[in-house]
Design goal:
By secondary structure, this protein is of the alpha+beta class. The chain contains six helices and 13 strands. Helix 4 packs parallel to helix 5. The model has no long low-confidence stretch (mean pLDDT 96).
């Protein structure tokens, strides 16, 4: 069984106003023994978020059995650099890492920042598995839709590459093992009635309805932080999988009790 955790940790800021990454680690470990942890909103150098701490280094030390990958969407200078974005920690061997910059079409009506999808390929026996985590734009619907469409297009490209694998060469031209498929997770900043969700659903299967049918998705934000989320509990954090992985889905749990962030952590289990 393979377990993956996804959580927008809001740079460790709990509803109580404390920034506490050790608490994040405790809650994550209590939810389940995750082979791969995908965190969004990890900060390093943005004093107003991280109080001067390198949160990527802190998370690495809090999960010593996992290899860390931090490829932030925002990386600004001059030195000392300020970085903000997605991080993955994996107990499985990491074979490949790709950071995909997502589209950011002009939208002068709102604030917005660069968004990214962080992809790792891990070894699962003699095969490989792609794990992608992302955090789509909150303020701009046009940007969020474009970003969802890009993620769907990436999955289509991966499927084409799987059908026609490239010739293997030396060094960076070396081939990866055959892929079992893609697991895509993160804070998508849309609900299921938005066109962005439909764009992703053209290529992916969402794990919650695959496992729970018509039962409404457990809320993933707005559960405890009513100041940021006055509309109350709802879901905007999801797991999506390639259709070929859907029969392997076994369990998706959401911790709705913790208030260690404004979002709730999700744990997905697959039979691999």
């Amino acid at each position: 069984m393979l377990a993956l955790l996804s959580w927008n940790i809001q740079f460790g800021l709990g509803v109580d106003g404390r920034i506490d990454l050790a608490r994040i680690a405790r809650v994550a470990n209590a939810l389940g023994d995750a082979d791969v942890l995908c965190f969004q909103e990890v900060s390093a150098g943005f004093m107003e978020f991280d109080l001067g701490a390198d949160q990527a280094a802190q998370l690495e030390s809090l999960f010593p059995g996992h290899e860390p990958v931090f490829a932030p969407a925002v990386d600004r200078g001059p030195a000392p650099r300020r970085r903000f974005g997605n991080m993955i920690l994996s107990r499985l061997p990491i074979l490949d890492v790709v950071a995909h910059a997502l589209p950011r079409p002009a939208d002068a009506s709102v604030i917005h920042m660069q968004r990214q999808a962080l992809e790792i390929t891990v070894a699962v026996g003699a095969a490989a598995l792609r794990v992608v985590t992302t955090h789509l734009e909150f303020h701009s619907l046009a940007q969020r839709r474009a970003q969802a469409e890009r993620l769907a297009a990436l999955e289509a490209e991966w499927l084409d590459a799987h059908a026609m694998p490239p010739l293997a060469g030396k060094g960076p031209y070396g081939a990866l093992p055959p892929s079992l498929g893609t697991i895509l997770c993160g804070d998508f900043n849309f609900e299921t009635d938005e066109s962005s969700y439909a764009a992703l659903s053209a290529e992916f299967i969402e794990a919650w309805p695959a496992l729970h049918g018509t039962t409404p998705h457990a809320p993933t934000c707005g559960v405890h932080d009513f100041k940021q989320w006055p509309t109350g509990p709802h879901a905007r954090d999801f797991f999506f999988v390639s259709p070929r992985l859907a029969p392997r889905l076994r369990r998706l749990a959401v911790d709705t009790v913790t208030d260690a962030s404004d979002h709730q952590p999700l744990l997905l289990s697959l039979d691999l």
